[in-house]
Design a protein that fits this description.
- This protein is globular.
- 30% of the residues lie in helices and 16% in strands.
- A hairpin with a 2-residue loop joins strand 9 (276-278) and strand 10 (281-283).
- The protein has 2 domains: 15-182, Creatinase/prolidase N-terminal domain (Creatine Amidinohydrolase, Chain A, domain 1); 187-409, Creatinase/methionine aminopeptidase superfamily (Creatine Amidinohydrolase, Alpha-Beta Complex).
- It has 11 helices and 15 strands.
């Protein structure tokens, strides 16, 4: 396994930016219960929990004392923090689904889930001393202890905020405050994204090497998935490869459903746009592979124009630049080199981190954040698609770290289409 699981830094979130976000929105604190936001603020990731199940964890943070957040986890999850340390020292717990309902609660019930060597660790002692009957009780007490029993508190799950039923708390939406923090990456996050991107690049190149004549699209997808797992990464149902590949001269831009199938014939332009995760951080991207050959004729012109447009956009990806300006720069290259249908080219961007967005949808002023500006140390995939049929379409998605000197590509393979070696 080239990318085995490894402990993460105790703290990798952009805490200062989150505090700034709360201040800009006149919020006293925030409560997060979504898996990704809990992981982002604490480093805790629990196994076996599904996204639409009741949340067995939370992080409560006060803007007025940001160095003292509280992490609340179900009793059966406390021991997980012994292997993946967290910077949060105030860890608390509550009785959860594993404990019997046919027996009275016991004072030492939490100890059922704690290895003996961990019992004398300070934060474990704290968790044993703050063992509540429910997650609601644990969070209400934590909010009170942090001075958040009244005031304006954001929740990334508004339903959970209302379930706490704290009459003196004004509940607001915590999605955008968290995304404002997450959109600019810390050095630790950039290394996690760089590692994930390297896995994706290696998986794509390995999968290309496994192609054989007569191989079907589903078999090819399965080869990529298998390679990813062998390397140590994860993909999600229904699959990792995003683009569809209409055949028969069809120029439509489609996404695949995992239900289509066709033979991956020599000469086809396969567009790798692969999604997956490593250490919960997303990888994205890829580019065109001409099966068993290379771009020729008009397709070669389109590939060269795409590489030139990508280089121009990369150079322009600096703090302060708006997305619409990057699109204009890329499209102008196609117009300058004289390839047809420059207006048909799709050039688009999004954030990347724990999700394929990591961007606030509304700013602290309440304005839609559509034509957003780049900031230093954002990680932003650059997508360029020159539409065409199965022998002419050209695609490139490069993952970029924004710097004052222009975009830094996280892939190592350059801007030209892939050629099997």
């Amino acid at each position: 396994m080239a990318y085995p699981p490894q402990p993460l830094p105790e703290q990798f979130c952009n805490l200062g930016r989150l505090v700034d976000s709360l201040a800009a929105r006149d919020l006293d604190g925030i409560v997060v219960t979504s898996p990704y936001n809990t992981f982002y603020l604490s480093g805790f990731k629990g196994i076996a929990h599904k996204s639409d199940e009741p949340r067995p964890y939370a992080v409560i943070l006060s803007r007025h004392q940001p160095d003292h957040p509280v992490l609340v986890v179900a009793d059966y999850y406390v021991s997980s923090l012994l292997d993946q340390p967290t910077w949060i020292k105030d860890v608390r717990s509550f009785r959860a689904v594993m404990l019997p309902l046919d027996l009275p609660p016991g004072e030492c019930d939490l100890d059922r889930f704690l290895p003996q060597p961990g019992l004398n660790i300070d934060w474990v002692k704290n968790a044993r001393g703050h063992y509540a009957d429910t997650i609601g009780a644990a969070c209400r007490q934590a909010l009170a202890d942090l001075g958040l029993a009244s005031g304006r508190v954001a929740f990334d799950d508004l339903r959970f905020g209302h379930l706490l039923a704290m009459d003196s708390v004004t509940i607001t939406d915590g999605y955008d405050p968290m995304m404002y923090a997450r959109c600019v990456k810390t050095p630790a996050e950039i290394e996690l994204l760089r590692r994930a991107t390297r896995l994706n690049e290696q998986a794509i190149c390995t999968t290309i090497g496994q192609w054989q004549r007569g191989m079907t699209w589903r078999e090819f997808n399965h080869a990529y998935h298998r390679t990813v797992i062998d390397l140590g990464g994860f993909v999600r149902d229904p699959g990792a490869m995003v683009w569809g590949h209409p055949c028969g001269g069809d120029r439509a831009v489609t996404l695949q459903t995992a239900l289509e199938d066709f033979v991956v014939e020599p000469g086809l332009h396969i567009m790798f746009d692969c999604h997956g995760t490593l250490d919960l951080y997303c990888w994205d991207g890829g580019k065109t592979w001409v099966v068993d050959g290379e771009a020729a004729g008009d397709a070669r012109r389109y590939a060269e124009a795409t590489a030139e447009a990508s280089a121009a956009v990369l150079e322009a990806m600096r703090p302060g630049v708006r997305i619409s300006e990057l699109q204009r720069i890329g499209r102008s290259v196609y117009s300058k080199v004289g390839v047809p249908d420059a207006d048909a080219v799709l050039i688009f961007f999004h954030g990347l981190g724990l999700s394929h967005m990591d961007l606030e949808q509304y700013t602290s002023d309440g304005e839609p954040n559509v034509d957003w500006r780049l900031e230093d140390n954002m990680v932003v995939p650059l997508h360029i698609l020159y539409p065409g049929d199965e022998h002419h379409r050209i695609w490139l998605e490069e993952v970029i770290r924004v710097t004052p000197d222009g975009g830094e590509a996280l892939f190592d393979w350059g801007l030209d289409p892939l050629i099997a070696t």
